[in-house]
Amino acid sequence: MHRKRNSVWNTPVSSDAIGSATKPLNSFTHVEAAGWGRGLSTLLRITRMNLRHPWQVAFAIGSTLVAVILQLLIPKLLGQAVDQTQTAIRGGVTGAAAEQALWISALLLLAVSALRGLVTMMQNYFAEAVGHHVAYELRLACYEKIQRLSFSFHDHVHSGDLITIGLLDLEGVRMYFSTALVRALLLTMLIGIGAYMLISTDPVLGLVALSFVPFVAWRSSVTQLRLRATWLDLQERVSVLSRVMEENLGGIRVVRAFAAQAYEMLKFDRASKSALDLAHDRVDIYVPNTSAMTLSFFFAMGLVLWIGGNKIIAGEISVGTLATFLTFMTILQMPVRQIGLMVNAFARASTCGSRLFGLLDQDITIRDAPDARPLEISEGTLRFDNVSFAYPSTETRPIVKNINFEARRGETIAIVGPPGSGKSTMAHLIPRFYDVIEGAITLDGQDIRKVTLATLRKAVAVVQQDAFLFTTTIENNIAYGDPWAKEQRIERASESAQLHNYILGLPAGYETVVGERGVSLSGGQRQRLTIARTMMLRPSVVVFDDSTAAIDAATEQRIRAAMRRFAKERVTIIIAHRLSSLMHADQILFVDNGEIVERGTHEELLAKRGRYKALYDLQMRSE
Amino acid sequence: MAQEDADELEGERNNVRDDGRRPPRAVVGSHRIEEEMFGRAFDQNVIRRIWAFARPYKAKLFISVSALLIFTGTQLLIPLIIRYAIDHGMAPGGIDHSYLLAAAGAFLLAILVNFAAGYTQETVVGKTAENVLFDIRRAMFARLQRVSLSFMDKTEVGRLMSRLQGDVNSMHEFLENSLYSVGDIALLFGIVFVMLWLDFRLGLVTLSVLPILFIVRIFWLPRARDAFMAAHETNSVANGALAEAIHGVRTVQSMERQQVNFILYDDKAHANLRTHLIAAKYAQVMVPIVDGLTGLAMAVVIVVGGSMIMNGRIDVGVLVAYLFYIQRFFDPIRSLTLQYSIMQRAMASGKRLTDVLDVKIDVQDKPDARALSPEMDGSVEFRNVTFGYNPNHPVLKNVSFRVHPGETVALVGPTGSGKSSAMALVHRFYDVQQGQVLVGGHDVRDLTQESLGRQVAMVLQEPFLFTGTVFDNIRYHKTEATRDKVIEAAKAVGAHDFIMSLADGYEAQLGERGGNLSLGQRQLISFARALVADAKILVLDEATANIDSYTEMLIQKALIKLLEGRTGLVIAHRLATVRGADRIIVLQNGQVIETGNHDQLMAAGGLYSKLYNLNYASFDDIPEEELDASAQADSQT
């Protein structure tokens, strides 16, 4: 069933649309070092993606070709018209015939110009459309990939890097077709055919007219590549400046408390100056080069005027031919300057594409086994059989070692231990946020690696320490795992989590928008919301991962009382620092260094006079 | 089940709901409430304020405008030189090359001047615009360092950041384009003038196509702008949804929302695609119009100008020059009509910038403010203090108490009793409405804020750390503090051991707001920071969140160390801290209701003893009902 759903819902991003070479974890963060081969294969892959829109590609390329031809006709027609006037003056033809010839040239010129405008519009539109369609597909693919990649991936990759890939790198790939491929075609044709026409008309004058092309092509490429390099640097410096400002404003009370305004201004000025200096440097890269390009163009034009003039005097060419040359040069000027942009677009697409594909090719380490079956819950018994685990980055040092325990429906298991002892890690193994490296976790005898992820995660809910709120209404946040829930259920859950009264006090009640851009909730309120959110799920196993730390003891008591019925129908696992949160558990596991060092009920453990007792005494004393 | 959900969602998307069930309570990527993007095209007040920032660069502006005008002049001149060369220097069979030589010389001169002017103008404009921008940002940032804290409390950091970044950046476009507009106007008038001067009738006929473009642009612009805005909007929504998926990925996966989110995101991404295609249509539709009009102008020149040449009324060079001008004369119209939108956007941003620059500064040093000497006695006294963020609703009412030098006083009381406000007043974050706050015997309003801040160290409930090394965080602005002093402080508060266990010890880089440390560890570092500040008076708001017992113990020890030899004013949440204080002040509803040490207060049998006897680990744990009951019982007795 899971497979079927995949095929229905993932059609726009079927794996062959994206290509599917798998790469080791984290390879995409080191793209800059990639060589030419990789860059080229990236460009080929983007090109292949573009070609999946054959009609639009065909229209774009077809209209580019037509546009070039029409574009080149314009100088010809202008020259022809100029010559027609000259012939008439010299009395070569009658006045009426000359008038008629001029009319024909004029109408042709009008028609060619208008038509060129139309095909250029088509060329630009379809070239952009190809890019936007590819961007749409890549957007979906990125989103889906990011949603599916395992926790171990997200632990290692900075969220800012992923956002950069999804926003900026995607943009670089989108622009590839119109600013790199189509422009390359346009420029090659325009300069190539144009050069042929000019040189075949007059080799010397033609070469002189084109003399600025190599220089401008070279300078504009160098300029763009240097600007690109400094752009990355500038972004970095600007983000340092932003961070200085943001931390200052966020921590303004600290700044004021230490009377550190002068120091903060100094920090700001340093960051600001560094960004400003580079912005000035960029002006210094850009301006001399563009000015030199303009000068070289005008210089070539001056030469054409001088040599062409002499040739006219010598009677070798007509004024019309000179006009053709001059007009052709003005037409060519802009496109030649764009060579730099084109080179930059190739470079950009290559690095952006490598990073983007690096993400899309990531292997999803935690996924359904080929023969995975839906989880079936009958007794609702959770078992840890000799479970060991180590994070991929620290494989030599297991975080969890040889854990054994069993929990039946209605039972509460508490896990307690010093910070870093592996408590949360144990909890994260149950919904397969990570896979065990030894032993097995079973639910009603089914190894969790052999059931489908979707059914497993519906059965196992973890109330996280750091609750994430989505920027939407409180109602939507509570119903996050069950968007079709009835209103009464949402209210009941929030009542149990001791949140209902608070919500009613908000200006828009359950419709109040919370999250990053909404009303901000305190730590305790966030945790209560997360508890309510989890209660909506009806899981078979629920884990409270230190999720009441910011809730005061009394409120926690009331939540626990309200949840008594809820707990009766499932296995509850509680991880907490505060012993009062877990004294009532059916079994308490004291964990240190990933191993269970003591287990039993509260009374049994106190009687043991071991680690648990020591912790108990410590807490009673400090309070 | 999931298939059903997906179907249902799909149904919702197409607005087909045959089963009558409600739509899902699900969205991805919230719709951002965008600020006003466009203001009036011209806001005199905004222009005046921005001009104030540009004034220091007056000389540079003068240079750039002059260079720009010279640059435009050479652009106009070049076709004229070509015309001269064709008409006077290229008579077929002529022997006299001097005219052509003169033309070539003039051409060379013109392009050199063009180069120099272009270079100067672009460099000066580019750099000056950046300078003005950075100056504006600095002025705003400096203002925010001094504005009242109640403004900062009300205003989200994100909002201020978008002032400092987005709005400042949108001025960049405006500053550069305004200058270039001067060039555009000069070019437009120049072309019109030269064309009419070359031949009035031909000029008039040719220029008649210009208004057509102008009119078309005026109709096109508002529609195109809407299309561009829509594309911009859908883009930021889709990007927001992606960012949310990244930040919330753990929740998404544990709640199995991938399927639903993907379908919802597809909607956003598709809307983004659609609006971008529409925007592309609007952007491209101008191409055939401009090309068609250029073609029309050229056709007119050829027919009318051609027959004029045959009549001998004009020379052929005029026609060639016209063809040059025609290819240029749509450019200024394009950029000038764009300038209108740029102006509107800049005025909207400028308005918001000036709002920040004009935020009132409530707490200011008096002209004759004195520096608080480090030799002062370290006492703190409240004399009949009445204070409220809103003067009509005082949070402190006629509060008087004195903290003697070296004494530790715990402030306790239910939430909203005015503890935090009292603490803020010692530091003069706000000014009192009535009465006086005295530090070292001086009214805080008579002291410089700088010297007051140096003598009053503050530890906030939420430890705030800056990006940077552990060392930099502990030292903070005391740049004169040595490494030994920092390590000594860290050892004193018990932070040394865990700091040394970090990969780079004191040089370890802290993540954003110290994110890679636990709450307890951040607390200890903020204690060390207060210790290095070495102030006579320490004001401390104890953390309420639960920390593991071991770190908790460290913090309690550190607290004792921190208060050694200092006057301490502690907002206490934990009974251990309260009991350790020399004296306890109980606040309720903004009034001091009890004072004394633990034993005295217990003996008195007032609110304190009632709260204490409820046997909660911390006063914050006491449920409101019990609190209300005790308070009532208390007020009845």
TrEMBL record, chain B:
Q: Where is the composition biased (Basic and acidic residues)?
A: 11-22
Listed Acidic residues bias regions: 1-10
Cite the SUPFAM superfamilies for this sequence.
ABC transporter transmembrane region, P-loop containing nucleoside triphosphate hydrolases
Q: Which residues cross the membrane?
A: 61-86, 98-117, 179-198, 204-220, 282-302
In this chain the ABC transporter domain maps to 380-614
The record's subcellular locations are:
Cell membrane
Of the GO CC terms on this record, one is: plasma membrane
Query: Where does the ABC transmembrane type-1 domain lie?
Result: 62-345
Protein topology in the membrane: Multi-pass membrane protein
Give the molecular function GO annotations. Answer: ABC-type oligopeptide transporter activity; ATP binding; ATP hydrolysis activity
Pfam families, sorted: ABC_membrane, ABC_tran
Region called Disordered, residue ranges = 1-25
Question: Keyword ATP-binding, does the record have it?
Answer: yes
PANTHER family (UniProt xref): ATP-BINDING CASSETTE SUB-FAMILY B MEMBER 10, MITOCHONDRIAL, ATP-DEPENDENT PERMEASE MDL1, MITOCHONDRIAL
**Which named protein is this?**
Multidrug ABC transporter
